[in-house]
Design a protein that fits this description.
The complex is a heterotetramer of chains A (about 550), B (about 300), C (about 550) and D (about 290). With about 550 residues, chain A is α/β, with parallel strands linked by helices. Chain A has 21 helices and 20 strands. Helix content of chain A is about 35%, strand content about 25%. The two termini of chain A are about 25 Å apart. In chain B, helix 4 packs across helix 7, helix 5 packs across helix 7 and helix 6 packs across helix 7. The chains are: A alpha/beta (about 550), B mainly alpha (about 300), C alpha+beta (about 550), D mainly alpha (about 290). At the B-C interface, helix 2, helix 4, helix 6, helix 7 and helix 9 of B face helix 1, helix 9 and helix 15 of C.
């Protein structure tokens, strides 16, 4: 068993726009049998660090400027192509984030799992297939026994990630590099995959470098946690100490700004609260929120017996199955469920963006027209949507000004052009941007800023009802906190009604007054936020809650 | 799989019908007729001739008659060479074009795919620029320049190969090279683009992380995905190759199909035009089907979808 | 990316191994050229120019068909290889009577079909009847109008007996032809394939008597009586004939076979010749004359060819409805310069329509070059019409390098000499034909090759309403003069009438003769017994191949 | 990495294109060839149809920069004049094919469902037609007007463009900004032309740079068949065709127009590649 020791590693990216320092002199070591968590937000350099160990960085543009990576007496950075081939997959294996794209779609799973054994000539190819089958069964890919020639696309994401684990561990490597291995998975699946990973590595004595953006998740698994921020290691310590006594303000902020399930807050603390003030902020700057004063009023939106079906090659799929829903004015209705549960479809059919097969939708007591026609803009003005991906939801060819003016022009709001521009500027200020941003194009903004623009666009028509469809799911926790705070304050100021869709129970609970849990197109549970969390009525909801890493469920550390 | 073949063949029927109809009327509306000639034929003889070929009937009746004959598999005699049936002419010329096409195809693949792969692997080095530059030259040079050029070098100057004819293996070299190089150029570019795209895929990184060698990555992991777009191109390209090339046939004096495509239209040889058009359409339909089957073979996802 | 260099090498090396292997294989198989082996084999490799449309002599219309049919069939007479004067063919001898109206042919007894059947006078009657049968629709049926009552039979409605066509078999071997009126060049006419006999049993067995497009002309079916018989026909590739042993004069025939290659592209044909693939080419591109003259001075031949290259005016529409404009266009062409500088193939400038010397007829020059007069005529026209310039004139020609070159040269000449800029309009062949015959042109390119060596084959075209006239020009005196020439018997009288026709043509200028054709060809020195003839007819039975003489 | 100045995607693409040396050289060559074609016939002291029958087939010399042809015409004037014809033919036909193809593809992709299926079926049918026969028939019908003919060729060339546009539209249709536009109650036309079309420009431009050479090659093939421009006009295709026939006797007749032609095609292709890189969203910042 060897020890990995990274010393003063510096990695730069040489792009046309200039040199970007991705990793800025970090030191890190992994002892035999140890599980080390490497945590940071996007752009912190955690993946670059991980990839540079096996020389898997795309070069150019990446260049390792200095440092050493010691592994069983050798400096990995000095090894040539064929030496590295001998180490990769044999001594050090790797698992990547997206199981959908990381398995070769043209080769049967079994062959891919067996391949490391064949490449490294560890056994006879026939024996390798046998071992691969065993390994796959061990990680729970049971279908392989029935159809050994199955291809990756025939498996779900969770099964594929299990197969990736089997592939990585089949050669019994000394070190496993896991780069965000569960980020793309649903919580319940994530929990299962993590436990398999942990058990298997434990039994093989493999040490693990576990890279993740999710501190809570790492707490669940790691013996030791290393936190990176802007290419530097800001803190590393054993898990318990790091959680209970974080030293660096950034780490403190990371722990604090994630909405948790056990307490209710009106506003989330943000990283700026901790870093800019340079002072010890309270760990829990929260107030238990008072009951919403607007609650109990009449329903703004009501849906009755909604059914939405899609035709696919395999036949008709019922995405929304007899859903009835009522949302009161000025409240937030949370909608939670795993991928494929139909929550997004429900959101869009409420906006009449998708044709529904049957059912009725009432807004302001008026019935919406049956089909998803575009031109009956009467109701369009009062209902808007904010999407998950702020990168895709802004037209890249239009400036912010054009994007925001267009809806007003189409709906003839706001009289003259100057009046409209004034309103646009006011809106931008409201979402935390300014008039100086008007002439810019979307690609010049960060993800958080773009989402603010999307919010502003949704507000141009002065709607009452906004569907937030996973609108913070793609964001780092620190940015997520800012956007969630913005949505909350807008609701307070404008009396907006939200349908807040997310797979993240914590976020939903933070935002919502009421929560519906969706599964397979149906709403399985309905109730007030606290009620759902404290007394889940169905096994499914309970499973959802239990799957959340303990550290994310509560503000305290119980791992 | 057999369902795919069956449904495709079923779809082919309306396609062929539309094509036959379109062509029928287009040729008839083109000015001039099959019996116009310089030594002006007396009017009464022309009428006789037209009656003999049924051209005196109303156009729509001719059309119905043609479709009826077509359903019986009868393409009728050529108007230009009435002593020959259209199907007979196609049947004599097709083997020639097939030989030429297959040879060119092999050359195109043998040059194009390795060339594109090398270029993709060594992107932005001279091993990329050289084959890509050559392939651009191949695309830019019309075959009627390349053909005489090859003849000039290999036949006139070096006396290695005969400059024309289609009588033995040595006659095959220059025409298939001329035709093959043109397609090789396209294939090389497509291969390079496809390979570059595939080499950026995450699963290539996975393969590298397993310790696979470059050769293994190229052949086992990247080739399938990278060559899929090439396969799509190959169907119509192959149809184009084996249905002959007028330019090549004219330069090298080869009795292939390509000549009929051009001269039939020029001669207003109505039956021949329709015959060649339908023949080509059937080729395209069959080869597209083959392409789909190959794609299904290469791509398990496509296999399942079908 | 650390790809290793060996990665793509196997594929490349496999490719090169195959290529080299192929090269060696091909080299190993490479044979001596056609021309090299031909002397021993006595096989002539003949550039045919185009695939013949028909091999049925009664349906054929092309030069290519003539070149093949004259090997496969023989008429009543044959041709002298140098002068094309009639020699005995199937007919051993003949007597002319009734002031040239009646011909009595004695057929030779040893004349046989290629399948051994004897060839009799009835075969000729059957053949004449077939080509004149209105239901066959033979394009050259009118060639036989020379026979008495042939025209009325061909117009239909009458049976052969009723019509009484002037052809009678006195016995198996004696055939009497009666003409409508005396034709001095009648015997020459008989060498046209329309007069060739066909084998009755074969025709009947294919039902080809009045049906177009039967398989009787294919190898294995074709029964002929010529010096050669058809052995192979691969369309667009080769037509092969071999010596017919049952031909009556097989002793004279020295060639064992002829291979005809329908190479259409003139540059491909030239390459074929230069590589020893062909003995002779059908044509040579005008642009290659200087180059080939230098490289193959002894093999490039300029041979007289009975044909005139000219343009038609459309006299039905302005401005060419006025003779002054037509004359102006004609007078502003420097034909000598056109011939010397543009065509460069030894053509002679056409100052008349009939090539001088056709059958001994030398017309007086009529079309001249006179810039000043041309300008004057045009100006007077413009003044009279009150025009500043002529409307846009289009010169229509069919797609061909040669036609284009001439048109471009004339375009420049008119621009320079007349100050008129015309527009050139190149049309695809069939469109060209329908445009011209529809009269939808102002100036159109044309050419005429004589079917027989007599001025009549040229001058008859300009009769009012003739199918070949197409200019819309009608002239009573011309028609009279032509009729007079047709009915006269004495040479002097005929020449006088033809001269009258020529003079009217030159005065009225419905056409614009440019030059007289020359047959340009590359011919290998080993081809012997081949003489230049006016009609480009070369009786194959006198042709043979011999080693080049080494002076 | 936020730029100080605001920049549109177009400007960004231009900056990236400027960094691509191959593409810039190509652009320069194209501009030079274009200018030469435009001005060349005026620069030459001989008109493109002016004949000097005493000086035919002359080697390049001081009077005739590129030599003369079979009628003693100045090859420089003819080459540059031919450039005008070939380039305008290429651009015109491409333009027509773009208009038809993009509209067709966009409608098909945006409408989706049965409309899409039928429209694409039609494209498949047209694909199965041998192109050359149809060009000849069109040629025969429109033969009198060369520009009209290339309008017709453009009308035949649009198939691939339609397929590309449709595929892109299908992708873009699912983009969230299109859905946002629908949620905001915009009309279909507005979505098609203001939101979809500008985002399709990238692949359209790239394919257009590949269509221009394809059309120019087609023009050359038509010249080979004798269906090219009306004499005495010249086009690169017809000049190359004539040059190829005489390459052993008068190589300059092939060399000069051939180099211009190849240079233009090379440049168009490299420019297309450069544009692809420059407009590729993957290579954008972030």
């Amino acid at each position: 068993m060897s020890k990995l020791h990274i010393k003063d590693l510096e990695v730069n990216f040489h792009t046309r726009e200039g040199i970007v320092r991705a990793v800025d002199g970090i030191n890190l070591s992994i002892n035999p049998g140890e599980i080390v968590g490497l945590v940071g937000e996007s752009g912190s350099g955690k993946s670059v660090t991980c990839n540079s160990i096996l020389q898997l960085l795309p070069a150019p543009p990446a260049r390792i400027e200095s440092g050493t990576i010691e592994w069983s007496g050798k400096d990995l950075l000095l090894q040539g192509g064929s030496e590295m081939q001998g180490i990769r997959g044999k001594e050090i294996s790797m698992i990547f984030q997206d199981p959908m794209s990381c398995l070769n779609p043209y080769i049967p799973i079994l062959d891919q799992v067996a391949e490391p054994l064949i490449i490294h000539r560890l056994c006879h190819p026939l024996k390798a297939m046998e071992d691969a089958r065993e390994m796959l069964e061990k990680v729970g890919v049971l279908r392989i026994a029935e159809c050994p020639r199955a291809y990756p696309h025939e498996f779900s994401g969770g099964m594929r990630q299990r197969a990736m684990i089997a592939m990585a561990l089949i050669t019994k490597p000394s070190l496993l590099l896991a780069d965000e291995p569960t980020t793309a998975l649903d919580v319940t699946v994530q929990a299962k995959v993590l436990s398999i990973l942990k058990d298997l590595c434990g039994s093989l004595g493999t040490s693990v470098l576990f890279v993740s953006h999710d501190l809570g998740l790492v707490a669940e698994l790691a013996d030791r946690v290393v936190v990176m921020y802007r290419g530097k290691v800001v803190e590393q310590n054993d898990t318990r100490t790091l959680f209970t006594h974080p030293a660096h303000p950034y780490v403190k902020a990371l722990i604090a700004c994630r909405p948790t399930l056990d307490i209710s807050q009106d506003r989330l603390p943000t990283v700026e609260d901790f870093i800019d003030s340079k002072e010890e902020a309270p760990l829990n700057p929260t107030t238990i929120s008072a009951p919403n004063p607007l609650s109990g009023q009449e329903a703004l939106l009501e849906a009755r017996d909604l059914i939405v079906e899609f035709k696919t090659d395999e036949g008709t799929v019922r995405a929304v199955d007899q859903v009835s829903l009522s949302i009161r004015r000025g409240t937030t209705h949370g909608l939670v469920g795993e991928s494929g549960s139909g929550k997004t479809t429900l959101g869009r059919s409420l906006l009449n963006l998708i044709e529904r097969n049957s059912g009725e939708i009432w807004l302001h007591g008026k019935r919406l027209p049956a089909s998803g026609q575009n031109n009956d803009s009467g109701f369009r003005k009062s209902m808007q949507i904010i999407f998950q991906d702020p990168y895709a939801s802004l037209n890249p060819r239009l400036t912010i000004e054009e994007t925001l003016l267009e809806p007003m022009a189409v709906h003839r709001l706001g009289g003259s052009k100057t009046e409209r521009v004034d309103r646009v500027v006011a809106l931008l200020k409201e979402v935390g941007l300014g008039a100086e941003h008007l002439a810019r194009y979307p690609h010049e903004f960060s993800g958080g800023q773009r989402q603010r623009i999307c919010v502003a666009r949704a507000l141009t028509t002065e709607p009452d009802f906004i569907v937030c469809d996973e609108c913070v799911s793609a964001m780092d926790v620190s940015v997520q906190a800012q956007v969630l705070n913005l949505l909350k304050s807008l609701q307070a100021n404008r009396g907006l009604t939200y349908l807040f869709i997310s797979h993240d129970l914590g976020v939903v609970k933070f935002m919502s007054d009421e929560i519906s849990v969706m599964q397979a197109g149906r709403i399985v549970e309905n109730g007030s936020a606290n009620h759902i969390y404290n007394e889940p009525q169905t096994a499914y909801t309970r499973q959802l809650i239990d799957s959340i890493p303990a550290a994310n469920r509560t503000s305290g550390f119980k791992g | 799989m057999s369902r795919l073949i069956f449904s495709r063949l079923l779809q082919a029927i309306p396609t062929l019908w539309v094509i036959a109809t379109l062509t029928f009327f287009m040729t008839r509306f083109a000015p001039g007729g099959p019996f116009d000639s310089e030594k002006a034929i007396p009017e009464e003889i022309k009428i006789k001739l037209e009656a003999h070929f049924g051209l005196d009937r109303p156009l729509f009746e001719q059309y119905i008659l043609y479709i009826q004959n077509l359903l019986r598999g009868d393409l009728g005699p050529s108007f230009k060479y009435p002593e020959w049936e259209v199907s007979e002419l196609i049947a004599t010329a097709f083997p020639v074009s097939l030989t030429l096409g297959v040879l060119s195809f092999i050359i195109a693949l043998l040059i194009g795919i390795p060339g594109g792969m090398i270029a993709a692997l060594r992107r932005n080095t001279w091993m990329d620029y050289l084959p890509m530059g050559l392939s651009m030259a191949g695309i830019c040079l019309p075959t009627f320049v390349l053909g005489p050029l090859l003849i000039f070098v290999f036949s006139t100057q070096l006396a290695l190969f005969p400059p024309l004819g289609w009588y033995g293996a040595s006659d095959w070299v220059l025409p298939s090279l001329t035709l093959g190089l043109f397609y090789a150029a396209y294939i090389a570019r497509l291969t390079r683009a496809g390979m570059l795209e595939t080499l950026q895929q995450d699963y290539i990184r996975t393969a590298r992380a397993k310790g696979a060698s470059s050769w293994r990555i190229l052949t086992k992991h990247a080739a399938r995905g990278g060559l899929l777009p090439v396969v799509t191109f190959l169907g119509p390209a192959f149809a184009g190759l084996i249905s002959g090339s007028f330019v090549i046939e004219s330069i090298f004096f080869i009795p292939g199909l390509g000549k009929f495509f051009v001269t039939a239209a020029f001669n207003r040889d109505y039956t021949m035009v329709l015959g060649t058009v339908l023949f080509y359409a059937i080729l395209i339909i069959c080869l597209n089907l083959v392409v789909d089957l190959i794609q299904a073979l290469l791509d398990p996802k496509a296999r399942q979808a079908k | 990316m650390e790809a290793n260099k060996q990665s793509a090498l196997p594929a490349i090396s496999i490719f090169w191994i195959i290529l080299f292997g192929w090269t060696w294989l091909a080299l190993g198989c490479s044979k001596p050229s056609n021309v090299e082996t031909a002397i021993d084999e006595q096989v002539l490799h003949f550039g045919l120019g185009a695939e013949p449309q028909h091999l049925d002599p009664h349906l054929a219309t092309s030069v290519a068909a003539h070149n093949i049919l004259s090997a496969l069939l023989e008429g009543l007479v044959s041709e002298d290889p140098k002068t094309l004067k009639p020699l005995p063919g199937v007919a051993q001898k003949w007597e002319i009577s009734d002031q040239g109206r009646q011909y009595k042919f004695s057929l030779r007894k040893n004349a046989r079909w290629s399948n051994g059947d004897p060839l009799t006078a009835h075969d000729f009657i059957y053949s004449f009847r077939r080509i004149l049968n209105p239901n066959l629709g033979a394009p050259y049926a009118s060639m036989l109008y020379a026979l008495k009552n042939a025209e009325s039979f061909h117009q239909g409605g009458k049976s052969w007996q009723e019509a009484g066509v002037g052809v009678v078999a006195l016995d198996e071997h004696t055939l009497v032809l009666t003409l409508k009126n005396p034709i001095p060049y009648f015997l020459e006419l008989l060498n046209h394939y329309a007069w060739f006999p066909v084998h009755q049993p074969t025709i009947e067995s294919f039902g080809a008597y009045e049906k177009i497009g039967t398989a009787w002309t294919k190898p294995g079916h074709f029964v002929g009586n010529g010096p050669f018989s058809l052995t192979s026909h691969q369309i667009n590739s080769v037509i092969e004939v071999t010596k017919n042993q049952s031909y009556w004069d097989a002793e004279t025939v020295r060639l064992q076979g002829i291979r005809f290659y329908p190479i259409e592209a003139v540059y491909t044909e030239e390459r074929a010749y230069r590589s020893g693939f062909l003995h002779l080419t059908q044509s040579v591109s005008a642009d290659r004359i200087d180059f080939l003259k230098e490289k193959y001075p002894d093999e490039l031949h300029f041979e007289p060819y009975l044909g005139t290259y000219f343009y038609r005016f459309n006299v039905r529409a302005a401005p060419f409805d006025d003779v002054r404009v037509r004359q102006a266009f004609s007078l502003s062409i420097d034909r000598q310069r056109l011939v010397d500088k543009v065509l460069r193939g030894g053509q002679s400038p056409a100052t008349t329509f009939t090539p001088p010397g056709t059958g001994g007829f030398f017309p007086a020059p009529g079309f001249a070059y006179d810039r000043a007069k041309a300008r004057e005529l045009l100006d007077s026209y413009l003044r009279e019409k009150g025009l500043d310039s002529l409307p846009q004139i289009e010169l229509t020609y069919n797609t061909s390098e040669g036609h284009k070159k001439v048109a471009e040269a004339l375009h420049a000449m008119w621009k320079e000499n007349l100050g008129v800029e015309i527009r050139l309009l190149n049309m695809e062949w069939k469109v060209f034909l329908s445009t011209i015959s529809g009269g939808d042109f102002s100036l159109a390119r044309a050419g005429w090759i004589g079917d027989y060596v007599d001025p009549h084959t040229f001058l008859q075209m300009w009769r009012s309403g003739d199918g070949l006239n197409m200019t819309g020009w009608e002239n009573q005196s011309y028609d009279q003069a032509l009729r007079l020439a047709e009915t006269s018997t004495g040479t002097a009288k005929r020449w006088e009438s033809f001269q009258r026709c020529e003079t009217i043509l030159a005065e009225e200028a419905p056409i614009l003769p440019l030059y007289f054709y020359v047959h340009l060809t590359l011919r290998h020195p080993s081809v012997r017994g081949w003489s230049p003839t006016l009609l480009d007819h070369h009786p194959y039975k006198y042709v043979y191949l011999a080693k080049e003489a080494h002076p | 990495m936020k730029p100080e100045k605001s920049s549109s995607l177009g400007k960004d693409a231009w900056l990236r294109l400027r960094a691509n040396r191959m593409a810039m050289v190509s652009l320069f060559i194209l501009v030079a060839v274009g200018l030469l074609s435009l001005l060349g016939p005026m620069l030459s002291s001989h008109a493109y149809d002016e004949q000097n029958l005493d000086r035919i087939f002359e080697n390049p010399n001081s009077t005739y920069l590129f030599g003369t042809d079979n009628l003693g015409r100045d090859l420089f004037a003819r080459t540059t004049y031919g450039g005008r014809i070939s380039l305008s033919v290429g651009l015109l036909a491409t333009f027509v094919s773009l208009i038809i193809g993009v509209t067709y593809g966009m409608i098909s992709g945006y409408a989706g469902g049965r409309v899409d299926a039928w429209m694409m079926r039609m494209v498949d049918v047209l694909y199965a037609l041998p192109f050359i026969i149809f060009v000849i028939l069109l040629m025969v019908m429109f033969g009198r007007n060369f520009l009209l003919l290339f309008l017709a060729i453009g009308a035949v060339e649009w198939l691939t463009m339609a397929r590309i546009t449709r595929a892109q539209t299908l992708n873009l249709k699912k983009a969230e900004f299109v859905e946002a536009a629908r949620a905001l109650g915009f009309s279909h036309t507005r979505i098609l032309f203001r939101h979809l079309l500008p985002n399709l420009i990238g692949p359209i431009i790239i394919y257009a740079t590949l269509t221009v050479p394809a059309v120019m090659l087609l023009e050359a093939v038509l010249s080979f068949l004798g269906l090219g421009v009306q004499a005495p006009m010249s086009s690169w295709g017809s000049l190359i065709k004539e040059g190829a026939e005489k390459m052993d006797a008068a190589p300059w007749l092939l060399l000069f127009p051939g180099s211009f032609f190849c240079l233009t095609l090379f440049s168009l292709n490299f420019l297309g590649d450069g544009l692809r890189d420059a407009l590729d969203p993957k290579s954008s910042k972030d």
